[in-house]
Amino acid sequence: MGRSVLCESFVEDYLRQLGRQAGVCMGLLIGQPSTGGKDYIVHAIRIPNEETTDDAQKLNATVAAQHALDATRMLPGGMYVLGIFVIHPKNVFQEPALLSSIKFILMSMKATFDANPLLMGTCEELEKSEKLVLHYSPASKAYVCKTVSLAAENPTVLPCDWKSVERLTTWHKLNVYFETDEVYPLKKRSDKEQYDTEANLTECAKKLKGQLMEAKILFDGAPKLGADTVEGVLTMKNQDKFLANVYLPTSAELSENDAKIEQFEGTLKFDGIVSSQIYIHSRCTFSEAERFIVTDIVRSLMSRIQIHCDSLIQAEDTPQDKITLNELPRRIYFPVRNQAGFPVQFCDYLFPEEAVETPLVRIKEILDISVNVRDLNSKVELVPAVKEDERPAEDVWRKPNTEEDFEGKLNLPVVGGLVTLLVLVIALLAYYLMK
Fold first, then answer.
1. Where is the signal peptide (predicted)?
2. pLDDT tens per residue, range 71-130
3. Which of 50, 128, 355, 406 is the most exposed, fewest CB within 10 Å of its CB?
């Protein structure tokens, strides 16, 4: 038995509109997989392409793979690029050349996700290396969906059941605020004097992912059975939401074999609070929900790191400061649909110096979603402004190692204590004189 797909009816409306306006085109299918081989499609994105003709789809596989990667950065945990759609007058499954092109595009997308593992763009446990391919014919207005298995070197086409539903499921929202405060060694490039910012930040995210994979996630302060469905437990509790807490593992003791002393030239303090907001379907199990929470946190961190490092402009020979602040962009949310009743939201990232309306064009280009400024929720994560004159000077952080370092310098904690004591004495004298 093949996979089963439930699609929101407004997604098919979007495809029909594309068939009338754009003619031959291709795009991405966004949704959530589940245990038992059932997929839920909540959004479709056309991939812009200027080289489209009436006879064939000339979409560049590199363009499609990059678009899938960019879109994944804007998806919450639990949402994935589940496959592609093709709008074409010919049945793509009966045209060997078109089918071969589609397989190559899917393999390119897989290779791109494999090269960016911390974006967690695939869910092997649920997808089992299968990607959806939906063909829509504008002439007959017929839909044909199949899956392409990428497990083997030669992808195979498998049957799939496609069904459009007005409201395919109830979506439950899980909010988690994850705080990290870790210190990691700062490593330089092997052949250069500079520190590789992206490599060091990526290593932080990689280690954090390892911790999260071993973490315990409690719902309403208690563990849940992995096979239980979220909706079933919520129904019994007569409520519609959970409070989820993530507890990272900590080693109670360190053996002599594990203990070691390392020398490095710097440290990287990786700290902050991540807003994690995921949406799960009504039959989602707690095991799946835990996986989606981990995916959301790691994907969000890696998306910020990539966006931040892409914005850095620094020459190879530019000297680096002893103290460098890498301020990752904050997360903002926006609805997939403006109409009330569909709660799922996607996300983007905003730098402190950027205006709130900055992401609107990017959201349209990547996700083909039209939103207004009032639709953006930009206050979930607030980053305190750090002015240059407020940054600590280098000599404040430098550890004194000679007697000269102490000459002419006040002991600030002692001075602060004396001033406090003096204020207290004055206050007591004033109190007794006024009695």
1. none
2. 999 999 999 999 999 999 999 999 999 999 999 999 999 999 999 999 999 999 999 999
3. 50
Average of per-residue pLDDT across 231-240: 76
Identify the residue whose tokens are 């049945």.
91
Beta strand pairing call for 25-34 and 38-46: antiparallel
Sign of CA dihedral 344, 348, 351, 356: negative
Tell me which range, 47-61, 178-192, 327-341, is most confidently predicted by mean pLDDT: 327-341
Quick one: which of 179, 173, 276, 190 has its CA closest to 234?
A: 173
**In a 3-state reduction of DSSP, which class is residue 4?**
strand
Query: Residue by residue, what is the 3-state secondary structure of 183-238?
Result: EEECCECCCCCCECHHHHHHHHHHHHHHHHHCCEEEECCECCCCCCEHHHHHHHHC
d(CA 234, CA 285): 12
Which residues have a Cβ under 8 Å from the Cβ of 48 and sit 6 or more positions away?
365
Using DSSP, state whether 393 is helix, strand or coil.
coil
The architecture that CATH gives domain 3-165 is 3-Layer(aba) Sandwich (3.40)
